[in-house]
UniProtKB/TrEMBL annotation:
Residues 27-421 form the PrkA AAA domain. It comes from the Archaea. It comes from Haloprofundus marisrubri. Keywords: Kinase, Serine/threonine-protein kinase, Transferase. This is Serine/threonine protein kinase.
């Protein structure tokens, strides 16, 4: 915009462009039939429209995670990425939800079930439900998602006792105009639509008109001697229908109130007392279609904390899901068409799961587990998203801060592995994809073991991202009050430790175990901080490249049973086994596994060569780590370790050079001083003892 001020004219034009062109238009029923012929998808039911919505915003296949990701969740194009979902488990849950909707679109059964999102607090199920509603609103504003309903007009011309205020009445259930056709004629139209339809489903509609519309249709047909054409031409207008949660139009959210005051009319509607004196108690025109199921027709019903409802109050959901009807008090059944989504937390699910009287309800639900994220780097992205959406422009987040917070969260969510073969931290790393080719770790078996040991499923218990996000926020504010413009892992650890015991969502019996996990995270951070300090003290990119090339020359000669030309003498010599082992031992590769490792890196180099990519040890994580550690061993004897532990030498040239090197790794200057004192002291202690 180049800094130009937005004028009212600009804003008005932008709004006008965002509104469907036919939003305010009224069209004839004949017009609607022609539109259906050109685009049969207009007549889709709710499941079909929601299923197409997910595909409309885009999909991609994540080969690493082995799951389909829907871009409305993985990229959030409508909100510029503000509401991205992270984690393999979460995207698997979303994919499972979409599969249920798509199965329902094909009439395979899930259209008659409640999609119950089950998960612990703060797992993202409510936010996902919200995003589905927001995207559905947007989708119905677009040509690809358009839908229409109808309104009755000029009713007072025919119906003598019609209230003048009701001369024009919109379809109270927002029904599709094809419902105005008797079933035999409707089937003929739908048969033609399906012949033109390019979709994995077929159009179906066997709904009856809502009672009020049925009343108007009967009166008008009687007036026109059953001339349906005259009725539709003189008393029906077709109008665009756009979903809006605020207007309670095609989207409705339902929240449980006081158990003692639950009233089924909240779901199914009630008498319109203002019309009772006009029409009489038994007249369908005196009914108020304001129930949640009525408002959600043609779209989405979202039930929050569904299992907190009384058992008797849930009976309405049985008919709404299985029979796709509702039965208001003293009124006939009303057909509904909507995707019913429920959400519940673990305690309520456990209570209802063992209740034999809930068998019918449980049989009509499709449970979709919505666990916590179990990859700690993906969990870290949740906190980064939180910071991106907040006002903390001057707070520098130090390396490892978000990852270590994420690691702590994941450790509380995964089950302890069997035996001593692998530690809990190693299991978390395996889930995060940190598996070397030579490691004897089967992630699939780890996940199967975790699922079998968990109460419901792995990831359904533990510390929530909400708790961790709150503590990160507290740590940021604490740093701000102290005049520090950086956030380090150490300050986050302090807030975890101080507040674990006092947090309402963390059971008292888990606190001691979680504190033990926090110590594991401290140990992991210490190792990473030491690596960073070692990197700063002795890192030499050119030397690593040279040593890497030397290593590969000797490896290839070893594999081919050949000789290597000595760099100094120019003579041919056998591969330097001592040099090779000095590199491999830095990865703790035993002597009986050296051939496997050498073949592994040889294959990697060969693949790179075939692809036309030059050798660079930085591109192979294991080889890079081994070479960096060897370089450290070679150079540490020339380092002044006393400078690491002395706070009085902050201005020393050598120490400042180390701080500069840490800054290049992403540290702030103050954060570099902190990590140098924290990890540097550990490095100095270890080296001075040897």
């Amino acid at each position: 915009m180049n800094g130009e001020i937005e004028t009212l004219e600009d804003l008005s034009q932008h709004y006008q462009d965002s509104v469907p062109a036919d939003l305010r238009e009224a069209n004839t029923f004949d017009w609607y039939l022609r539109e259906l012929h050109d685009d049969p998808r207009i007549a889709r039911n709710a499941h079909q429209r929601v299923a197409d919505m997910f595909d409309y915003y885009g999909t991609e296949y994540d080969e690493d995670a082995g799951v389909v990701e829907y871009l409305m969740a993985s990229e959030d194009p409508l909100h510029e990425g503000e509401n991205i979902f992270y984690g393999r488990e979460v995207h698997e849950s979303i994919h499972e939800f979409v599969n249920k909707v798509k199965s329902g679109a094909r009439g395979l059964g899930p259209e008659k079930r409640i999609k119950l999102l089950l998960g612990p607090v703060g797992s993202g199920k409510s936010h996902f439900d919200l995003m589905v509603r927001r995207y559905f609103e947007d989708y119905t504003m677009r040509d690809e998602g358009r839908m229409y309903t109808f309104r009755w007009t000029n009713l007072c011309d025919v119906i003598r006792d019609q209230d003048p205020a009701d001369d024009t009445v919109q379809s109270p259930m927002h029904q599709d105009p094809v419902v105005l056709l008797p079933q035999e004629q409707r089937d003929r139209v739908i048969e033609q639509l399906n012949e033109n339809l390019d979709a994995p489903y077929t159009i179906r509609n066997e709904q009856s008109l809502d009672p009020a519309s049925e009343f108007y249709m009967d009166k008008l047909l009687a007036e026109y001697d059953d001339d349906l054409q005259s009725v539709l031409e003189n008393h029906v207008e077709i109008i665009r229908l756009v979903a809006s949660e605020n207007k309670r139009q095609c989207i409705e959210t339902f929240e449980p109130k006081d158990k003692k005051n639950q009233d089924e009319t909240e779901l199914t509607g009630d008498v319109n007392y203002s019309k009772l004196a006009v029409y009489g108690e038994s007249d369908p025109r005196a009914f108020d279609y304001s129930g949640a199921f009525c408002n959600a027709n043609r779209g989405l019903f979202s039930g929050e904390e569904l299992l907190k409802l009384q058992r008797e109050f849930l009976y309405d959901f049985l008919h709404a899901s299985q029979e796709q009807t509702i039965k208001p008090k003293n009124n006939p059944r009303i057909d509904i068409d909507q995707v019913i989504v429920g959400r519940t937390n673990m305690p309520e699910y456990r209570d209802k799961k063992g209740d034999e009287k809930m068998e019918a309800f449980n049989d009509r639900t499709k449970r979709i587990d919505f666990p916590y994220v179990l990859e700690y780097t993906q969990e870290a992205e949740i906190y980064r998203k939180m910071l991106r959406n907040a006002d903390v422009p001057h707070m520098h987040i130090e390396p490892h801060a978000m990852e270590m917070a994420g690691l702590f969260g994941v450790l509380t969510r995964i089950t302890e592995p069997d035996g001593e073969r692998i530690s809990l931290t190693q299991k978390a790393k395996a889930y995060n994809g940190e598996i070397d080719d030579g490691d004897d770790v089967d992630v699939k078996k780890l996940r199967e073991e975790g699922e079998s040991k968990a109460d419901i499923a792995e990831g359904m218990e533990g510390v929530s991202a909400r708790f961790i996000g709150d503590e990160i926020a507290e740590a940021i504010m604490d740093s701000t009050h102290r005049g520090r413009d950086y956030l380090s892992p150490l300050s986050i650890f302090t807030h975890f430790e101080e507040n674990l015991e006092n947090h309402g969502s963390i059971p008292e019996e888990n606190v001691e175990r979680y504190l033990r996990y926090l110590e594991m995270v401290r140990d992991e951070y210490k190792e990473r901080a030491i690596e960073d300090v070692r990197h700063a003290l002795a890192y030499d990119l050119d030397e690593i490249q040279r040593q890497g090339e030397k290593y590969m020359d000797h490896v290839m000669a070893y594999i081919d049973d050949a000789t290597v030309r000595d760099e100094l003498t120019g003579r041919e010599q056998d591969p330097d086994e001592k040099f090779l082992r000095s590199v491999e031992e830095k990865l703790e590769i035993p002597n009986d596994r050296k051939d496997d490792f050498r073949q592994e890196v040889s294959n990697w180099v060969s693949r790179r060569a075939r692809e036309g990519t030059s050798f660079n040890p930085q591109d192979n994580d294991r080889l890079r780590r081994a070479l960096e550690r060897k370089l450290w061993e070679d150079k540490k004897h020339n380092i002044n370790f006393s400078a690491l532990v002395s706070a009085n030498e902050l201005d020393d040239d050598e120490r400042n050079a180390w701080i500069d090197a840490l800054e290049e790794q992403g540290y702030s200057r103050e954060g570099a001083r902190e990590v140098l004192e924290f990890a540097g002291a550990e490095v100095a202690k270890a080296e001075l003892e040897t």
